[in-house]
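Protein modeling request. Please complete all fields; requests missing the sequence field cannot be processed.
Requester role: graduate student
Desired output: 3D structure, token encoding
Chains: 1
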Amino acid sequence: MAAERTATTTGRGDERSIGAALQRYRAMAWVVGVLLIALIFVAVPLNHLAGIGGPSEVLGTAHGFLYGLFLLATVDLALRARWTLKGTALTLLAGTVPVLSFFAERNATRKTRAGERV
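Delivered output (118 residues):
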């Protein structure tokens, strides 16, 4: 019986752990979204139109690395909040489309806070 209480209070579904995972996910979604917008709408045009490749290399590398952290944060939240596989996959893919990550983050935050599955 004590093991059951411990499992429910410290398990993946604990409200505090979900809240912390949600904060990590939200931060990473915004960082990845802003970097992707800067990469696509600033760095890539500079690279192709002006021949300035430095910003594209730096932002592309940063976005790639941080997208990996975004993946980890999203999967962590999905496991803790018991998201559906479809919702998890769509949320992960949203980080690859400029501006869409902001909408996906808002939707995931709203549903997670309401206790719904994404």
